[in-house]
Specification:
With 237 residues, this protein is mainly beta. It folds into 2 domains: 4-114, no CATH class; 119-236, no CATH class. The protein is 9% helix and 44% strand. The protein has 2 helices and 10 strands; from the N terminus they run ββαββββββαββ. It has a 6-stranded antiparallel beta barrel with strand order 5-6-7-8-9-10. A 4-stranded antiparallel beta sheet has the order 2-1-3-4, with no helix packed on it. It starts with 13 loop residues before the first strand and ends with a strand.
Length: 237
């Protein structure tokens, strides 16, 4: 891991910084951990290497608090992991230590993905504006609220939600549960989230905000069922 064979004779111990960063799929950093340790040239003799490690522990204290197996693999120290994240492991010389020379081979960066489920269930509140009603003659006084349980497909590599999602809930109500005759009702939803499309293109907008077009089979009380097309803005959880 630390390219010990590249350390030249006479360079002495190498002090390195191991920085672990956990980045969420929206680009924010959830956790950052930094650890400073040392490594040294191996003599290809386990007994000799162990003796040198003990000597360095006595000389450098916390810097030498490293186990022998950690020369071959870096332990990832994190509090917890979200369902989706990118873990960045960065190893570089600790330039604050002015002992011996710097082995530039100890520059190393690796990325690991934490993958969650491909189907997520969420909740959304929206403000819809009906653009088309297949039963426009059967008048309904649509309210300005929609509340939906939504089902999202999540990309297995990027962790982004697919821009089209499905939902079921109330539509055209004044409050999320206010379903009355001649007003709102129950609906299914196929929603094209234009904001989610910008996230897929790595354009950072406010997370949890949604905006797009919706096709909704709508079932009002004591009124004819119909298909609606509406524009909608809202928030998702």
């Amino acid at each position: 891991m630390f390219q010990r064979d590249s350390i030249r004779l006479g360079m002495g111990p190498q002090f390195v910084t191991i920085r672990t960063t956990v980045q969420l799929r929206d680009g924010t950093t959830a956790q950052t951990f930094e650890r400073r340790v040392l490594t040294f040239r191996s003599d290809n003799d386990p007994d000799r290497d162990h003796a040198m490690l003990i000597q360095y522990r006595m000389a450098y204290g916390p810097y030498a608090a490293i186990q022998s197996e950690e020369f071959l693999q870096v332990r990832i120290h994190v509090d917890s992991l979200p369902d989706w994240a990118i873990i960045k492991i960065n190893i570089e010389p600790d330039y604050t230590i002015k002992i011996g020379g710097y082995d530039q081979y100890n520059l190393y960066t690796r990325y690991f993905r934490v993958r969650g489920p491909n189907i997520e269930i969420g909740f959304s509140l929206g403000i819809p504006k009906v653009l088309f009603d297949t039963q426009a003659k059967d008048t309904i006084a649509y309210g300005n609220t929609s509340a939906m349980v939504r089902f999202y497909y999540v990309d297995g590599v990027s962790g982004h939600r697919f821009p089209v999602n499905l939902g079921i809930g109330t539509f055209g109500v004044n409050t999320p549960l206010d379903v009355r005759v001649g007003s709102g009702g129950l609906a299914l939803s196929v929603f094209l989230d234009l904001v989610e499309m910008t996230r897929v293109l790595e354009i950072g907008l406010i997370k949890k905000v949604t905006a797009g077009l919706e096709l909704a089979p709508f079932f009002p009380l004591k009124k004819k069922a119909r298909f609606l097309i509406d524009a909608q803005v809202g928030i998702s959880f």
